[in-house]
Structure formats: structure tokens, C-alpha cells
């Protein structure tokens, strides 16, 4: 068994084609400097699927302009309040409101939704954004301008990846074999949306090496995906020790040792004795899925979670006996074992999250980061097992993508999700590494 070569961050010969520039309105030209946003261009490392992405607008099966509270940064809020446009001004009076619980300029205001269907108040009947149509893309808030892109500086390099709560982004990232071949492109981004992922005394070399090793391990097809996540738990445990003992210079040595253990197969001897505990997994991950419902009662997201609840045997109130849930979960997992591209699609999902979360460093604690990943994996696997059981067959590729997308849409944008995950694990006493590895099987 051998690692594939590290991801090649090869620079492309030409930059990605830029979107056609929109002419600035006379209103935009007269705005004070503090009401505008600075656009910067950097050479960024991106997975290939990012270069293929373009918003499909009204054809999107689950618009990002519906079902969420839209955050408005302070410069955009001031722009909207100052607009003289006779169509937009009355809309802003109704739908634009000050966020009295703001934590800073980034969430200074919000755009309310229509009560009947949850659409953003600035959408017209065809689904188009009136702000962009009338004032240009430059006038959009940071949230609307950037989504679904996450742009950050990590280990001295700018990079961009997409959030898979966007259906088109999920389709492009999860279904193409070459989606995670890497390229370099000169890309624009607003300065206010660039995240600088620095982690104290950690050197760029240590940051990059551990994450590159993670991405190599995730591509090792000879290991079951759950075993790959278990090995990452061992990596995070050792990284935590090196951080605590201030020996981060030993990261390359650690990675070489783990590589030798993976290549020899010795690391599997310690994992093979871990029992598979479907009941515990159902208790931790599947029970909560029976009860969870999106605020919108119709649409693609609601359909996925209805399928999940049905696959776990829940009634309309989201209730089911634990023995029933365990039995349905076990049957669904057996169907996943026969699903042809399940491993490949979930591997691409985890590769995407490795970049987006700057795994294993993103939370400041590698072990905490790994615990959160275990729960994410457990919930996604639980959703897919339930969906397979609901249709009583292995899942098609687009059904797997739907399940991953629905998880991202439902949970990833909840600010309390990560904290709730950690609290749940601690309350269940499943926050130690050996226990976590057991629920991965």
C-alpha cells in the first residue's frame, strides 16, 4: 500500500476567465469611500472544480437567496440606505433591518425574507436579485458577493474553495474524478472577505505539511474511509502532544513515521480490533435526524430530510423506537456498502473540508478538529444510510450528492453547530480518542 504523490499545486498558464465587468452607476461613483469595498487580486491555489463554477441563477434547485437570514455588512447597509433608486428604496425600507446583536461590521444588518416562501426580499418573481440587476455586482453585500466562495491565506498561500451548501458547487466538487486536481489562478476577491488563517507559533512548513499529508491519506483507496479517519485521529493525537510539549519541529518526523506505518499495513492491526457498534452510532447520529426538519416545509432540502426520517422509521412527529432506528440504520449501512461511488464521493467531500477547515489546525486543537470531523462523518453517513433504506436499494450518485449537500445546507451555516457537537460528545463521554475511533467503524 502506498501514498499517492502529494497534490501538485501546478500553476496554470492562463488565469481563469473573469466575469464581464458591470458598468458602475452614477450613484456608485458618488459614494463615500467608507461605503465601498476594496477588490484585490491574488494568485490562489484552487481545486479544478472551482474554475468550472458559475452561478446558475433562477435555474438553481435550491437558491441561496431563500431559507437563510442574509447578513449585511456595514458598508453595504449604508449603501442600501442611501440608494435613490425608486424601486429599491421602498424594498429596503421593508426588508433591510439593523442587527442589534451584531458582533461587528460584518453582520451590521440583515435582509428579511418573504413570509410565504422564505425568499430574500430583494428577489423578484423570476428569482433574480434586484440589487445586482440595478446597482451591479459591486453593490452586493460581502455575504452575497462571496458566496459560495471561501477565500483564505494559509501557510503563506492564498487559496479558494467552495462551500457545498450550494447545489451547483456540490455537483461539481463531488462528481468529477479530477475535481481536486489543483491549479493556480489570479483571482479577485474583496479584501473584507479574505480570511488569514494563522496559528500562533506554528510555522508555514508545519501547517502545510500536516494538511498535505491529510489530503494524501484521504486518497489512499486501499484503506476503508472510516480507517482513514481513524488514522487521522492518531495524527491529531500526536500533533496535540507536539504542540503541548512545544516540539512542532518534529512534525516532519511524525509524518514520516505515520507514512511508514500506513505503507507497511501495521497501522491496521491496531484498528482491526475495534468493534463496529451500529447501536451506538444510531444513538449518537441517527436519533437526532428523525426529529430534525428545515424551516421551509417544501423544496429540495425538506424532501431529503423527509426521506431520512422515513428511512429511519420515524412518524410525522419524528418519533421512532430506538430498536427500530437501529434496525433501519443497520439495513441502510448494508446498502451503502453496495453503493458503487459512495467512498469516492465522500472522499471528495472530506478533501473539500480539509481545505475549507484548514484541517487539522482550523479549531486551534487538532483533537477537537478531529472530533468534529467524526461527528460530521457520522451524521452524513447516517443521512445516506437512511436515504438508502428509504428507497430500499444502493444510492445513485446524484442521491449521494443530495445527501451531502443537504447536510451542508442544514448544519454548516449554524454558528453553534461546532459548539453543540463538542458539548454532545462530552456529555456522552465520547470525547476520548479510543471511543471516537470505535464509532467510526
Q: How would you describe this protein?
A:
The chain has helices at residues 26-29, 48-51, 74-82, 88-95, 130-135, 142-146, 167-175, 204-218, 225-244, 251-264, 267-271, 278-291, 300-311, 322-337, 342-356, 366-391, 397-412, 417-427, 433-440; strands at residues 9-11, 39-47, 70-72, 96-98, 109-111, 149-154, 157-162, 182-190, 195-197. With 441 residues, it is α/β, with parallel strands linked by helices. It has a domain at 65-143. Helix 16 crosses helix 17 and helix 16 packs parallel to helix 19 (433-440).
List the helices and strands and how they pair.
Elements: E1 9-11, H1 26-29, E2 39-47, H2 48-51, E3 70-72, H3 74-82, H4 88-95, E4 96-98, E5 109-111, H5 130-135, H6 142-146, E6 149-154, E7 157-162, H7 167-175, E8 182-190, E9 195-197, H8 204-218, H9 225-244, H10 251-264, H11 267-271, H12 278-291, H13 300-311, H14 322-337, H15 342-356, H16 366-391, H17 397-412, H18 417-427, H19 433-440
Parallel strand pairs: 1-8, 2-7, 6-9
Antiparallel strand pairs: 2-8, 3-5, 4-5, 6-7
Helix pairs in contact: 7-15, 7-17, 8-15, 9-10, 9-16, 9-19, 12-14, 12-16, 13-16, 13-17, 14-16, 15-17, 16-17, 16-18, 16-19
Amino acid at each position: 500500500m502506498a501514498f499517492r504523490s502529494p497534490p501538485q499545486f501546478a500553476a496554470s498558464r492562463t488565469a481563469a476567465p473573469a466575469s464581464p465587468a458591470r458598468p458602475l452607476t452614477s450613484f456608485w461613483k458618488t459614494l463615500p469611500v467608507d461605503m465601498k469595498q476594496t477588490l484585490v487580486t491574488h494568485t490562489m491555489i484552487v481545486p479544478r472544480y472551482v474554475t468550472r463554477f458559475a452561478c446558475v441563477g433562477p435555474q438553481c434547485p435550491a437558491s441561496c437567496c431563500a431559507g437563510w437570514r442574509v447578513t449585511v455588512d456595514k458598508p453595504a447597509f449604508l449603501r442600501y440606505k442611501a440608494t435613490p433608486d425608486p424601486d429599491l428604496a421602498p424594498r429596503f425600507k421593508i426588508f433591510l433591518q439593523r442587527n442589534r446583536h451584531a458582533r461587528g461590521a460584518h453582520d451590521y444588518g440583515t435582509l428579511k425574507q418573504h413570509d410565504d416562501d422564505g425568499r430574500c426580499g430583494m428577489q423578484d418573481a423570476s428569482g433574480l436579485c434586484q440589487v445586482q440587476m440595478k446597482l451591479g455586482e459591486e453593490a452586493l453585500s460581502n455575504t452575497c458577493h462571496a458566496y459560495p466562495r471561501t477565500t483564505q491565506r494559509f501557510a503563506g498561500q492564498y487559496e479558494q474553495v467552495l462551500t457545498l451548501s450550494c447545489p451547483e458547487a456540490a455537483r461539481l466538487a463531488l462528481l468529477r474524478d479530477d475535481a481536486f486536481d489543483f491549479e493556480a489562478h489570479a483571482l479577485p476577491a474583496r479584501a473584507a472577505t479574505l480570511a488569514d488563517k494563522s496559528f500562533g507559533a506554528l510555522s508555514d512548513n508545519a501547517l502545510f505539511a500536516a494538511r498535505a499529508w491529510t489530503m494524501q491519506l484521504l486518497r489512499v483507496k486501499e484503506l476503508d474511509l472510516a480507517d482513514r479517519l481513524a488514522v487521522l485521529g492518531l495524527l491529531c493525537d500526536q500533533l496535540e502532544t507536539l504542540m503541548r510539549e512545544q516540539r512542532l519541529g518534529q512534525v516532519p518526523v511524525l509524518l514520516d513515521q505515520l507514512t511508514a506505518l500506513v505503507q507497511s499495513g501495521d497501522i491496521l492491526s491496531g484498528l482491526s480490533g475495534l468493534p463496529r457498534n451500529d447501536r451506538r452510532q444510531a444513538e449518537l447520529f441517527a436519533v437526532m435526524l428523525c426529529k430534525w426538519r428545515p424551516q421551509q416545509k417544501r423544496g429540495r432540502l425538506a424532501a431529503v430530510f423527509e426521506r431520512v426520517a422515513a428511512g429511519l422509521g420515524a412518524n410525522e412527529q419524528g418519533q421512532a423506537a430506538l430498536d427500530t432506528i437501529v434496525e433501519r440504520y443497520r439495513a441502510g449501512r448494508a446498502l451503502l456498502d453496495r453503493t458503487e461511488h459512495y467512498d469516492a464521493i465522500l472522499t471528495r467531500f472530506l478533501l473539500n473540508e480539509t481545505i475549507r477547515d484548514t484541517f487539522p489546525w482550523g479549531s486551534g486543537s487538532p483533537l477537537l478538529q478531529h472530533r468534529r470531523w467524526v461527528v460530521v462523518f457520522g451524521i452524513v453517513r447516517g443521512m445516506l444510510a437512511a436515504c438508502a433504506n428509504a428507497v430500499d436499494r444502493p444510492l445513485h450518485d446524484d442521491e449521494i450528492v443530495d445527501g451531502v449537500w443537504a447536510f451542508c445546507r442544514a448544519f454548516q451555516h449554524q454558528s453553534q453547530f461546532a459548539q453543540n457537537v463538542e458539548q454532545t460528545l462530552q456529555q456522552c463521554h465520547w470525547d476520548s480518542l479510543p471511543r471516537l475511533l470505535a464509532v467510526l467503524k
